[in-house]
TrEMBL record:
This is Secretory carrier-associated membrane protein. GO terms for cellular component: plasma membrane; recycling endosome membrane; trans-Golgi network membrane; transport vesicle membrane. It comes from Juglans regia (English walnut). Residues 60-87 form a coiled coil. GO terms for biological process: protein transport. Residues 1-57 are annotated as: Disordered. Probably involved in membrane trafficking.
Length: 303
């Protein structure tokens, strides 16, 4: 072998002359150029900046606080309303807001929501009876007014007007409203009040259907006797009185039927009362695991 042959050492570093202006040696690695601060995009005049005004942040926080305060106040009022409703319910004080008739509310009337389901049919029948006496008295006033126009005298018209103006509200106050409250609370006292004045109501309807010339002056009631008398001279007026007689007869029959149904309900022998008793027994069978205080509370609620 030739010893003068020079084998290059692969681990030797190549000598680089720093003063040479030529290109780097063929085996040299390119150096990574350093990045100046200008290439990072910080602090230059063309950089985009986002300015967030402090007033907007304060306004949003204030609105959040106002919404939170409003929500807490609303919840507080809702709890207060519920507490009052519960107190009213426990005290047994009914909500008597006027809601009937819908076009001009003058009384409180809500059978579907306040009367027990098993008693609603009876209450609707009694309500029909009250509307019936209102219709009878109003038509009685109209028929007597026709008689007055035909020469019957103004006195009977004034009397019929008094019957209508007093009879409609008094029938509601004296027997329909006590029955409504009795059905709602099962009050024996209110049932007794209803029976007393409803019997008077039935007696008046029968008396008006006959209209004898006693107590009530002349032809101020459209009964059968007054109708027969008027047919002799004024046929049209007699027809009006005959229609009034039919209305009082229907009201008397309806009132007698309602009285019978409500009396049976009050005595516990009607189908509605039996339904109530069956529902009470079923509730006691469904809840056999209740404690003694809970059973007492359930009995109080059922009463």
């Amino acid at each position: 072998m030739n010893r003068n042959h020079h084998d290059p050492n692969p681990f030797d570093e190549e000598e680089v002359n720093p003063f040479s202006k030529g290109a780097p040696a063929p085996g040299s690695k390119p150096r990574i150029p350093s990045l100046g601060p200008e290439t990072l995009g910080f602090g230059q005049k063309h950089d985009a900046t986002v300015d967030i005004p402090l007033d907007t942040m304060k306004d949003s926080k204030n609105k959040e606080r106002e919404l939170a305060a409003w929500e807490s106040d609303l919840k507080r009022r809702e709890k207060e309303i519920r507490r009052r409703e519960d107190a009213v319910t426990k005290a047994g004080v009914p909500n008597d807001d006027k809601n009937w008739p819908p076009f001009f509310p003058i009384i409180h009337h809500d059978i579907s929501n306040e009367i027990p389901v098993h008693a609603q049919r009876l209450q609707y029948l009694a309500f029909a009876s009250w509307l019936g006496i209102v219709l009878c008295l109003v038509f009685n006033m109209i028929a007597v007014m026709v008689c007055w126009i035909r020469g019957g005298g103004v006195k009977i018209f004034f009397l019929s007007t008094i019957y209508a103006l007093l009879g409609c509200p008094m029938s509601y106050v004296l027997w329909y409203r006590p029955l409504y409250r009795a059905m709602r609370t099962d009050s024996a006292l209110k049932f007794g009040w209803f029976f007393l004045f409803y019997l008077i109501h039935i007696g008046f309807c029968i008396f008006a259907a006959i209209a004898p010339p006693v107590v009530f002056h002349g032809k101020s009631l459209t009964g059968i006797l007054a109708a027969i008398d008027l047919f002799n001279g004024h046929v049209m007026v007699g027809i009006f009185y005959l229609v009034g007689f039919a209305l009082f007869c229907l009201e008397s029959l309806l009132s007698l039927w309602v009285l019978q149904k409500i009396y049976l309900y009050f005595r516990g022998a009607s189908e509605a009362a039996e339904t109530k008793q069956r529902s009470t027994r079923s509730n006691r069978m469904i809840l056999p695991s209740l404690s003694a205080p809970e059973h007492n509370l359930l009995n109080l609620l059922e009463e």
